[in-house]
Amino acid sequence: MSKTKNALSSNISIIVAVVALLSVASVLGSRDEVSTAAGVLTGGALAVAALLVARARARKRPEDAGPVDRVAAGMADERDRAVQQQAYAFTGIAALVLACAGSVAATPGMDAAVIVGALPLALVVALVIGYVLSNRRM
């Protein structure tokens, strides 16, 4: 894919993310869940800002950017895609292990809301670990 198509698809994905973020926040706000809407806007805005920073970093100095930056900018090569695929595979295995551990933890009476609330954070940590390990091995 050419650089122009990558830049266009990257810009479109950011616009779609912002529109989806605003849509979810407006639905939550209309249901009188203002705190949840504020949380969605804050978290989503931070994620979009991180994506924009990664994209700018990869475009300004591609030789200094990491695989996550180049993937976010749409400038990934074969190695970056392999690192991403291995990190996603690691996260999938971690999700299976964590789901089993959550089921076992819920059996003696641990609150299920705590387990479900901890899973997203644990999976993000697993994704970061997967990226770091895959990037070091390749």
Task: Describe the protein's topology.
Blueprint: H1 3-30, H2 34-60, H3 67-73, H4 78-106, H5 112-137
Number of contiguous helices: 5
- What's the helix-strand series? HHHHH
N-to-C CA distance? 24 Å
Largest sheet: none
Helix content: over 70%
Give a verbal description of the structure.
The chain is an all-alpha fold. Helices cover 85% and strands 0% of the residues. The chain is built from 5 helices and no strands. It has helices at residues 3-30, 34-60, 67-73, 78-106, 112-137. It is flat, with a radius of gyration of 18 Å. The model has no long low-confidence stretch (mean pLDDT 88).
Task: Record keyword descriptors for this entry.
138 residues; mainly alpha; 85% helix
Task: Give a nutshell description of this structure.
The chain has 138 residues and is mainly α.
